Amino acid sequence: MLVGLEHSELAIRVVEDGIRDQNPLADDATITRLLAERIELMRRIQDRTLAKK
Asked: What is the 3-state secondary structure (H, E, C) of the chain?
């Protein structure tokens, strides 16, 4: 379980770094909001994919 959590944290950091690269003038609150939006989008895509099976 610990390895899974470490991988999740790493994935979130990678996405956050990508958001920062795409939005160099964004403040921390904006980065957090954009990160939450991307996580929600990934969950919706995953839910749709699982529902099709």
From this structure: CHHHHHHHHHHHHHHHHHHHHHCCCCCHHHHHHHHHHHHHHHHHHHHHHHHHC
